[in-house]
Amino acid sequence: MAGTRKAAVAVVLAALALTATACNDNGSDGGNAAPAAPTTAAAATTAATQAAPPVKVSPAVFLEQVTKKTGAAKSAKVTEEISVGQVTMKGQGALGWSDGLEADLTMDLTGSPMAKALEPITGGPKVHYLYTADAMYMGLGGQMVQGGGPRWLRYSKEEMSKLSGGSTDQLQSADPVQGVRTLIATGKVTEVGQETVDGKAATHYSGELAVADLVKATGRGVTQEQADRLKQNLDKAGVASEQVDVWVDADQLVVKRTERADTKNGPVNIAVTYSDYGTPVIAATPGDFITLADLAKAGGTPAGS
């Protein structure tokens, strides 16, 4: 059972890490020739107090405003669906980004090949994750807790990095601010138009991020370090380009984002919706957990492997 446990956990972490490679960047771009998005600013006429039509700005400039409003909200409820090749994961919970990323998420792997492999560890197809500032905790069930064993398995950031091929940013796939910044970094943002997301009116923005474009990204407010990091992640996943889409409501908050790319492990599709901005995120450190080192001492999974 130890071998199955190790393989299943590694697959989950690797899949989550792979989704992060497409959105692990910060940047800005204020000068795209594309359909304009309105701001709330207005110029007064010289003859009367009547307001003039709203001032127009480029989609990229407008999205910079969106990053500020969304960032200030600090947290939201999230629903996401991630597919990596033939593996599909659906999740829901709460995500916070006020001081790093923290989350309380439940991933449903029903119908995924991983579900059966994980069953001895989790007791079923649903997996409960807590992300704190320094670690990830995976809820245990089934054979793992028979006889009153610990209820959580803890991975430090270093252990997550080793198991997931060098990335510790598993939550980046759900971060709405990073998602918008990735779209801005494309340098090719367009306004698609008005659409409805979960019954709410929203404006759809779209762009394609190509690895080759990252050379120019440093001239659009992206630092060299950020561009290099994103390029390294994309290269590692075998991604030449990805499609990024964001939907923004009237309050300049992200209500949905999607990313699509072809990777060496198959196509990756990410769809995340956001609601209830400002919701509390419960990601306190569990007191009842076992570590990889503990498993090694007990004859289970070797420490750090």
Would you kindly provide a written description of the structure presented here, covering whatever features stand out?
- The structure is a single chain.
- By secondary structure, the protein is an alpha+beta fold.
- It has one domain (2-36, 57-297): Clam (outer membrane lipoprotein receptor (LolB), chain A), CATH 2.50.20.
- It has eight helices and 14 strands.
- The protein has helices at 2-20, 59-73, 113-122, 157-163, 176-185, 214-217, 224-237, 292-297; strands at residues 37-38, 56-57, 75-84, 87-96, 102-108, 126-131, 135-139, 152-156, 190-197, 200-210, 241-248, 254-263, 266-275, 289-291.
- The strands form two sheets. The protein has a twelve-stranded mixed beta sheet with strand order 9-10-11-12-13-3-4-5-6-7-8-14. Strands 1-2 form a two-stranded antiparallel ribbon.
- Strand 6 and strand 7 (135-139) form a beta hairpin.
- Helix 1 packs across helix 3 (113-122).
- The longest helix is centred in the N-terminal third of the chain and has 19 residues, at 2-20.
- The protein is globular and about 65 Å long.
- The two termini are 15 Å apart.
